[in-house]
Fold this sequence. Notes:
Helix 3 (48-82) crosses helix 10, helix 5 (102-113) packs across helix 6 (118-140) and helix 10 runs antiparallel to helix 11. The chain has two domains: 1-30; 35-242, MetI-like (MetI-like fold). It has helices spanning 2-26, 37-46, 48-82, 87-99, 102-113, 118-140, 145-153, 158-169, 171-194, 201-210, 214-242. The protein contains eleven helices and no strands. By secondary structure, the protein is mostly helical. The chain is globular. Helix content is 83%, strand content 0%.
Amino acid sequence: MKWSTAWLNGGVVLCVLASWEWWVRSLDVPVYLLPGPLAIATAFGMHSRGLIVGALVTTGEALSGLVLGSLFGLLLAMFLNFWERLEPAVMGVALFAKSTPLIAIAPILTIWLGFGPAPKIVITALITFFPVLVNSLTGLRAADPAVHAVMQSWHASRWEVFVHLRWRAQYPYLLAALKSVAPLSLVGAVVAEWLGASSGLGQLMWLAYNNLNLPLLFAAAVVLSLIGSLLYQVVVVFERRLYI
């Protein structure tokens, strides 16, 4: 059944690519407006080294920001679990940081931190921490009330309730957040690279855009899509291993 589904999906993809190539050729669409799959594949071959190096740089920045933002969001959720009175103030500041457009923050961070990976990591962390914070906090408070009542009858401390009940209850919520922010972390890294970087797929895409090299631009976008899909699948595999 799985193999038949894979063949079906592969056939659909091939039909889409063939239709795309036929359409741009039959209408004689200029390559600087919309390249066909063959032109994009040629760009892969011509710029494979630059794409690989850029992918490694961008993925490293995205993963660093993802880990930093997720840890910060998780720790903040744990903090608010024990000190609920501070939630309105903390969530207000977190929401303000989340609502601030990246296009406004990135140039400032680039001026402060330079053109290296630091501003890209910070921006990625800012994107990822809020969903992790909200989902983790929701999961910590979604513990079974009946089990909670039993633990209270046994005079369990707040820390024991957290470790043995609330921490496990937030697993599905945390994993759901990671599925969303793992591919999204690439967006933060690429946006920051567009606004100022010496390497990475975002910088490569910016150069391709300025030179109207759309095959290379599309090739870089395809690489980003593949990396995003891979990050998502890593979280899915981790989720399956966790519940085995």
